[in-house]
Design goal:
With about 170 residues, the chain is mostly helical. The chain is built from five helices and no strands.
Length: about 170
């Protein structure tokens, strides 16, 4: 079996080594410029969201519970934006996007939605039974998503740890 697999690996390597019509250094440089611009835009969006959050926090009446819930929702939104920016920045250090960072973003977004749905169920008076049931189903689905994403994060970290501890890996 090893004899059959070895030529296949050589073939794959020789295919990857073929010269391209497009210079890869130029494409990498253009991609890096786009990433820098996008990261700067993400930080501007996050700054705008923080300013909007503070403004809404100061003007929302009553502060408890509506203002507090809106502030928590807005702050988690800013955290999501910053995590996306952090993921793009990490790409410069590692050369590729890290799966675990996207999974963390998914957990934060799901928890944000759970808080939003939970607060709307708690604060809304006179909800129809169908709307209440839909809200409960949303909570259950998002809870399952959080559990699945946390499990995926755990599996990813275990795989990374195993990869780093194998001989010949740093």
């Amino acid at each position: 079996m090893d004899k059959k697999q070895a030529p296949l690996a050589v073939d794959i390597e020789s295919q990857e080594a073929k010269p391209s019509m497009i210079p890869t250094k130029a494409v990498d440089a253009i991609e890096d410029v786009f990433h820098v611009v996008l990261t700067a835009l993400l930080f501007l969006v996050a700054l705008g969201a923080v300013i909007f959050t503070v403004q809404r926090l100061l003007t929302t009446s009553p502060f408890y519970p509506n203002g507090m819930l809106q502030a928590i929702n807005d702050i988690l939104f800013v955290v999501i934006i910053l995590e996306i920016a952090r993921t793009v920045i990490a790409r410069f250090n590692t050369g590729f996007y890290q799966l675990s960072r996207f999974l963390v973003i998914g957990v934060i977004a799901s928890v944000r939605h759970i808080l939003s749905v939970g607060s709307s169920l708690t604060l809304s008076i006179g909800k129809t039974p169908e709307a209440f049931e839909r809200g409960i189903i949303e909570l259950l689905v998002n809870g399952g998503i959080v559990i699945a994403l946390v499990f995926a994060i755990l599996m990813t970290r275990m795989a990374e740890k195993d990869y780093k501890t194998k001989p010949g890996r740093s």
